[in-house]
Amino acid sequence: MQRKFSLGFTLIELLVVITIIAILASFAYPVFTGIQERARVTQDMNNLRQIGLATQLYLNDNDAALFPSGIWATLLQPKYLATWKIFQSPFDKRTPSEDGTSSPVSYGLDKNAIGVLTDKITNPTLFVLFAPAQTSSTTVTFSGLPAVAVTVDKDTSAPGGKAVGGTHNNRKRIDACMADLHVENMQWSQFINATSKPGDEKATQRWDPAAP
């Protein structure tokens, strides 16, 4: 006599399969979010590089003098930059726009660089020129707009206030474009430091263009 075998899953087998899928998903999710963050960091650095290149073209046309105040409309010219989206960080969750009024602006010019001649900057490889200009929110948020002179320094961004951390790596890191126009992925603690100490002896030159 032939035995009849059930081709269906028992409840226990189904629970085992669901448990295995849940375990695999728990491993995959951090990997997926990590890949997403690395992609945002890459785009963030690319935006800053493009802003830096446009700034170099501007300096060539203006006797190496940095911007007198607000810069975004100055750089948004066909010969410098062609789109507002370059001024929006991938960490900025606002709706993109190209209308020149509500277009999100995520990056700020170091307020100590306004009107400075680049040849007067003591150490351009260390001096922060552009960086994300965050608000003081506990999450990564931005409030800059085209009509606003968005600035950033070690203590605060305008508009927005004092950021409580970086833009990525659990707010432990941030990207910045230095005065020699190279881009760095920096530790937040290093970014806001302006006091010389072992391992960061020239920190004063990060925010003071004339620091010895």
Low-confidence runs = none
The helix-strand sequence is HHEEEEEEH
Strand fraction:
5-15%
Helix content: 25-40%
Straight-line N-to-C gap: 97 Å
What is the overall pLDDT average? 88
What is the count of structural domains?
A: 1
The major beta sheet can be summarized as: 6 strands, mixed
Category by helix and strand content:
alpha+beta
Overall 3D geometry? elongated
> Biggest sheet: strands side by side, in what order?
4-3-1-2-5-6
Radius of gyration: 23 Å
Using DSSP, what is the number of strands? 6
Question: What does this protein structure show overall?
Answer:
The chain is α+β, with helices and mostly antiparallel strands. It has one domain (11-206). The chain is 28% helix and 11% strand. It contains three helices and six strands, in the order H-H-E-E-E-E-E-E-H. It has a six-stranded mixed beta sheet. The longest helix has 51 residues, at 11-61. The radius of gyration is 23 Å and the shape is elongated. The mean pLDDT is 88.
Could you give a quick summary of the protein structure above?
The protein is α+β, with helices and mostly antiparallel strands and 212 residues long.
Question: How is this fold's topology laid out?
Answer:
Layout: H1 11-61, H2 72-75, E1 107-110, E2 128-132, E3 151-152, E4 157-158, E5 173-178, E6 183-187, H3 188-191
Parallel strand pairs: 1-3
Antiparallel strand pairs: 1-2, 2-5, 3-4, 5-6
